[in-house]
């Protein structure tokens, strides 16, 4: 099939199967997210329709590993365009050096990204905070739907450890017993009175800020960012370290996004008193975070698939796609393992060439989850139960991979404890959702 035919098939699927309302000006240069409003899940839906309706398929591993930003990027992937012969050399040249002064940062959790922004501004190492991300709390609803945010999930754990590690108290300014308007008034006063070293965090619904490009396009999409005043009194400066974005947005647009019933939360802290973390506190934080005998996300995915396949608790197989809609938000948290490895590798001065293979395994895990997601969507859409065997095989492989990553991480943690002359570390059993 030619590239022109693939492009035409993409437009046909968007129009006829996905009822897109954003096809004006459709072209190979159209951006999937900001022009066509396709989030990561809708891109998977598009790929699945192309496979089932038009026989156009791409390797699942390539889908996860390829940066697909425009229609043309997708066409090239589906056409099987080969990479240049120098790709391997480029990858080797771009390989991270764990001991470099500047190391690539990872943004996978909005609350932690806001806290880390202040740590970096103080010139301190923020990577220990990432110990709490790879297995950070999530929920499974009573309808067996994966959820990255619920009213029951608290960020108090991160706030507590931020203070213990860096000496900075994080205060929740949002009053859940007060009216929404009272909290909006409180936000305005805090932003207006903000000092240069203060961070005013607020939870808002990103779906109601359409001017912001958002690769997830969840509705609703609860998200934390930070606010400051701007020269124009009708505008606020937004600092969103999780999405690496900073810029002005109309104040009334921001307040509208905060006013949505889907969101409620906010914190304030001042980095002036920030200090270097004590070694014993870093060790205790690792132990408080580390889940040694379980891979909660992979286990929960398996339980959700089981329930839908067996039509238990009133759920249907066709609902499995919606049940997994928020998986992309949780999948990216697995990249946090790399900061955990990097911290201990630097502290122990271990060689970079022994660090890179673990980066590859972390990448395999983080990219394997989107590939798994496509398999699950295929099962939900086709109701072909023979797809289940491939899903369970992939779950087993990813589970074994994450277990191996954790085992190595614990091994270097124990070596670090010995290097720091800390008492013998004892792992504590913890299940995600219970702190």
From TrEMBL:
Name of the protein this chain belongs to: Acyl carrier protein
Domain Carrier: 4-82
Signal peptide feature range: none
Pfam families per UniProt: DUF6005
Lineage: Bacteria, Pseudomonadati, Pseudomonadota, Alphaproteobacteria, Hyphomicrobiales
PROSITE patterns: CARRIER
SUPFAM superfamilies in the record: ACP-like (SSF47336)
């Amino acid at each position: 099939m030619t590239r022109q035919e693939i492009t035409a098939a993409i437009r046909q699927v968007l129009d006829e199967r996905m009822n897109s309302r954003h096809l004006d000006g459709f072209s190979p240069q159209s951006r999937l997210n900001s022009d066509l409003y396709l989030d990561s899940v809708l891109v998977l839906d598009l790929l699945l329709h192309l496979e089932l309706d038009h026989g156009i398929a791409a390797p699942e591993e390539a889908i996860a590993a390829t940066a697909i930003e425009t229609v043309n990027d997708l066409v090239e992937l589906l056409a099987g365009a080969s990479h240049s012969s120098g790709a391997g050399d480029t990858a080797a040249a771009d390989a991270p050096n764990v001991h470099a002064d500047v190391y690539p940062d990872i943004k996978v959790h909005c609350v932690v990204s806001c806290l880390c922004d202040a740590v970096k501004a103080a010139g301190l190492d923020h990577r220990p905070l990432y110990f709490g991300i790879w297995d950070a709390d999530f929920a499974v609803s009573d309808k067996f739907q994966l959820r990255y945010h619920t009213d029951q999930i608290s960020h108090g754990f991160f706030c507590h450890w931020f203070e213990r590690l860096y000496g900075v108290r994080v205060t929740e300014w949002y009053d859940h017993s007060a009216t929404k308007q009272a909290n909006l008034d409180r936000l305005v006063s805090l932003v207006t009175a903000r000092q240069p070293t203060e961070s005013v965090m607020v939870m808002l619904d990103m779906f109601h800020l359409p001017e912001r490009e958002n690769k997830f396009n969840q509705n609703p999409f609860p998200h934390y960012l930070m606010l400051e005043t701007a020269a124009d009194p009708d505008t606020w400066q937004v600092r969103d370290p999780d999405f690496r974005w900073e810029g002005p947005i109309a104040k009334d647009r921001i307040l509208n996004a905060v006013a949505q019933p889907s969101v409620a939360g906010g914190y304030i802290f001042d980095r002036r008193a920030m200090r270097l973390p004590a070694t014993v506190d870093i060790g205790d934080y690792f132990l408080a975070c580390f889940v040694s005998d379980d891979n909660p996300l992979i286990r929960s995915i398996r339980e959700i698939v089981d329930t839908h396949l067996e039509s238990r608790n009133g759920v249907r197989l066709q609902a499995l796609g919606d049940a997994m809609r928020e998986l992309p938000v949780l999948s990216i948290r697995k990249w946090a393992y790399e900061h955990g490895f990097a911290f201990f590798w630097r502290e122990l001065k271990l060689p970079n060439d022994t660090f890179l293979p673990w980066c590859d395994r972390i990448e395999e895990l983080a990219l394997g989850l989107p590939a798994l997601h496509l398999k699950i969507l295929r099962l939900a859409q086709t109701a072909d139960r023979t797809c289940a065997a491939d899903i369970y095989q992939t779950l087993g492989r990813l589970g074994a991979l994450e277990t191996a990553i954790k085992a190595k991480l614990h091994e270097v943690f124990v070596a670090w404890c010995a290097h720091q002359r800390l008492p013998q570390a004892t792992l504590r059993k913890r299940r995600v959702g219970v702190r």
